[in-house]
């Protein structure tokens, strides 16, 4: 196992398309729910314990070798907003390209063939971690961190927020990320024996509603 | 875990000259340059000049709207299914250089859905003088500047001006009105670019895009050779 691969996979510059997505931050900014560093941190904490936890669990389960098709269905079931499903699959497809270039692996090839237009991003992320020789906890960390780093960088652009304030907010979330990642890894281990219903299904209705509204805007900076 | 290095299936590599089915993919040409220099106008003119002889498609990268794609649709330079807009997340150069995944997806989908294609034009969102396309996304790139942006831009250089496969100095019709010295722009461009070609054009004139269209034809001949 090569722990350093986690740095490559979790790097914000890993070319997997994330830079064009705000993780719901653009809609939240427009709605007045994110107005500065403090509300950004609150937003991120909320996202982390809801969709972040779900994504991290899916990623961890994929890293453990759970059936990715069943995980993809579980992801669909946990994503009510059609716009978010589209975004998740698009990001999954983009991550797949980068992952196959970085860690060529027959299981990635098989998933790419099964979902030519993309599987849910967390499932691809978990399988990428697996191909890289990483474990379930690594995949969970990577996914949990992404669930907050995406909105934070997007908000720096959207509000011209001081980047140091945004980064300090991410640092303050470290304990929460630890908690979510370990909860996700435990759930994933249960899912391997008990099936995907053992995965958490926490949801953030405002993220779902906001994503639907955002998808209909004529002018926007981010794709989601 | 055991790593197996054999891989197959769709879309494993970006710059690969062949599609998964073994056929040669379309030539991809990028058009970049500052905001408003005439990228979309050049794309539209190229489509009109080439669409009867080639199977072509366009990808636009709009920064926060779909205006470029909508302009091309309105002008009906190509059937709508041959025009795709990519969203760039406030960072046009990232989408064409550092993280090209959304653009690669767009070109591959176009080839799948309306192919076979000979040529795909990829227009970047208007950006600064350092914005260049990744070689993983395009085979050749055109950098479009205009005379109204200041006649010292060729002298200032920068990656777009110095390294693009073709430099286009557009809107020459405006030179007298904005006090730009075309001879100086041409000489500065030559000094920056050595043997790389430069075209001065006005799309306001009849067949204004002819030199760029000829350059594209030459690229295509080399690509299919
Ligand atoms: N006079 C003159 N105007 C031109 C010429 N080429 C383009 N224009 C005009 O310049 C304006 C901007 O042209 P676009 O083609 O939209 O420029 P662009 O580089 O695509 O702009 P962005 O995508 O917004 O960065 C439009 O109003 C065009 O009609 C030209 O050769 N001469
Ligand atoms: Mg344009």
Automatic annotation (TrEMBL), chain A:
Where does this protein reside within or beyond the cell?
Cytoplasm
| GO CC terms | cytoplasm
- A Pfam family the protein falls into: UreF
Q: Carries keyword Ligase? A: no
Keywords per UniProt: Chaperone, Cytoplasm, Nickel insertion
Gene3D superfamilies per record:
Urease accessory protein UreF
Does this UniProt record's set of keywords contain Cytoplasm? yes
One Gene Ontology MF term: nickel cation binding
Question: Which HAMAP family does the protein's record reference?
Answer: UreF
What family is reported?
Belongs to the UreF family.
Q: How does it assemble?
A: UreD, UreF and UreG form a complex that acts as a GTP-hydrolysis-dependent molecular chaperone, activating the urease apoprotein by helping to assemble the nickel containing metallocenter of UreC. The UreE protein probably delivers the nickel.
Function per UniProt: Required for maturation of urease via the functional incorporation of the urease nickel metallocenter.
The protein, known as: Urease accessory protein UreF
What gene, per UniProt, encodes this protein? ureF
UniProtKB/TrEMBL annotation, chain B:
GO CC terms of this entry: cytoplasm
Check the record and name the Gene3D superfamilies matching this protein.
P-loop containing nucleotide triphosphate hydrolases
Q: Name one GO biological process term.
A: urea catabolic process
This protein's superkingdom? Bacteria
GO MF entries: GTP binding; GTPase activity; nickel cation binding
> Do you know which SUPFAM superfamilies this protein is assigned to?
P-loop containing nucleoside triphosphate hydrolases
User: Which ranges carry the CobW/HypB/UreG nucleotide-binding domain?
Assistant: 29-199
Its biological purpose: Facilitates the functional incorporation of the urease nickel metallocenter. This process requires GTP hydrolysis, probably effectuated by UreG.
The annotated subunit structure for this chain is:
Homodimer. UreD, UreF and UreG form a complex that acts as a GTP-hydrolysis-dependent molecular chaperone, activating the urease apoprotein by helping to assemble the nickel containing metallocenter of UreC. The UreE protein probably delivers the nickel.
Name the UniProt record assigns to this protein: Urease accessory protein UreG
User: To which species is this protein native?
Assistant: Streptomyces antnestii
Organism lineage? Bacteria, Bacillati, Actinomycetota, Actinomycetes, Kitasatosporales
